[in-house]
Amino acid sequence: MSRTKHGFFGKALAATLAVAALGAASIAQAATDLTVWHAYRGDEKAAFEKVVAQYNAKQQDAVVKTLAVPYDAYADKITASVPRGKGPDVFIFAQDRLGGWVEAGQTIEPIDFFVDPKVVAQLVPGMMEAMTYRDTVYGLPLNYKSIAMIYNTALVKTPPKTTGELIKVAKGLTNAPSGRFGLAYKYSNFFFHAALMNAFGGQVFEPGPKPVIDSTQNVAAVKTMLQWYKKDGILPADPSSTLIASLFNDGKAAIVFSGPWFLGEVQDKVKYAIAPLPTVDEAGGKPLRPWLTVEGVYVSAGSKHKEASYAFAEYLVSLDAARVLALEGGQLPTNKAVYSDPKVAANPTLQGFRKQLDTAVPMPNYAEMTLMWSPVTTAMMGTESLDISRMLRASASAWARSSASMPGWAPGGWMHVTI
């Protein structure tokens, strides 16, 4: 080969290598930076961050960074930051705020265009409904939570299956003067009370949405709760989270109605098991039906990387992610295949809460839901003087003040009930 030809091919090879190097650099630079906000702590936080690290390692299109936001400030931070383009690309939150954020605008990106039926098919049935508002899909369901029956196995050998059995067992384990109670739960908090409301066929809204908190079914549910508290005497007064955890840890509360979050407060010395909530004799044998909160993965409306953000959201609901979230984070993933995993199937806590899913009711995601929480829960807080009329008057008054901002939504026909 002549020197001229050798020089030509050498230069050509060098040019090719240079182009390849530029291409590699371009690919490396093309990786998109994404930020995801969440409110996880402890094991849940560690598991979530491990899932994010797995995603970053398995692909080169995006690099996801996490930011844990304190829960008490989380919703307000989303409301204030995301519409102004100051928020994350992706955030995780329960579905009860979905309607409000959609109505406010510039907060959550619709994802109908992205959602693959194959992704939906891998999820526990019914979960996508929680992510749907006015027939539009806004998120992918990641995890779900509901309350169930948590009982001290040293005090309760067989969990009661009906409220008749529950009251009998609880009375036998109650000694109010010594601070012992057969049952403890936050009955004055509307989220916890909803299980009883739903058993009677009550609801917060009819389609429209039209508030129906004053329905006869809701009245019957509150009467039953007051029966357990005032007449049967099986419930403690002023049931704060701290009190309930203290009673359970000290063996002074045999049964608690609560969710997975409660287990982090249970001391190692307490041996417990989880069972579905009982059926309600007073409601014709219908089961207690707790509200189901579904944590959604949402793409921010202001994200400049919506396709990459959705790809990350899709990975979060995969089986690989679900295994970590379940086994290391104690979460209840929406991916249905994870419950067939041998380690998950052998976990009595995960399986206990999974069984409760069969009778749980997705919490409403109407925009008006945000305005419901405060007046109803506030009205129910005064357990010593609690009556239905107080609850309804407080709720009606709050809704009336809010109706100006939500045309067509005004309470009417509120009833006065004496217990």
Layout of secondary structure:
Elements (H helix, E strand, L loop, with lengths): L2 H27 L2 E7 L3 H17 L3 E7 L2 H11 L8 E5 L3 H7 L12 H5 L5 H4 L1 E2 L2 E2 L1 E7 L2 E5 L10 H10 L8 E4 L5 H10 L5 E2 L3 E2 L4 H16 L9 H9 L3 E6 L13 E4 L3 E2 L5 E2 L3 E9 L6 H11 L2 H9 L14 H4 L2 H9 L4 E2 L6 H13 L6 H15 L17
Parallel strand pairs: 1-2, 1-3, 8-11, 15-16
Antiparallel strand pairs: 3-15, 4-5, 6-15, 7-11, 7-12, 9-10, 13-14
Helix pairs in contact: 2-12, 8-9, 15-16
List key phrases describing it.
single chain, 419 residues, alpha/beta, six-stranded mixed beta sheet, four-stranded mixed beta sheet, 16 helices, disordered C terminus
Could you characterize what this model shows?
With 419 residues, the chain is an alpha/beta fold. 42% of the residues lie in helices and 16% in strands. The chain contains 16 helices and 16 strands. The protein has helices at 3-29, 42-58, 71-81, 98-104, 117-121, 127-130, 163-172, 190-199, 216-231, 241-249, 306-316, 319-327, 342-345, 348-356, 369-381, 388-402; strands spanning 32-38, 62-68, 90-94, 132-133, 136-137, 139-145, 148-152, 181-184, 205-206, 210-211, 253-258, 272-275, 279-280, 286-287, 291-299, 361-362. The strands form five sheets. Strands 1, 2, 3, 6, 15 and 16 form a six-stranded mixed β-sheet that branches. A four-stranded mixed β-sheet has the order 8-11-7-12, with helices on both faces. Strands 4-5 form a two-stranded antiparallel ribbon. The protein is globular, with a radius of gyration of 26 Å. Residues 1-9, 21-28 and 406-419 have low confidence and may be disordered.
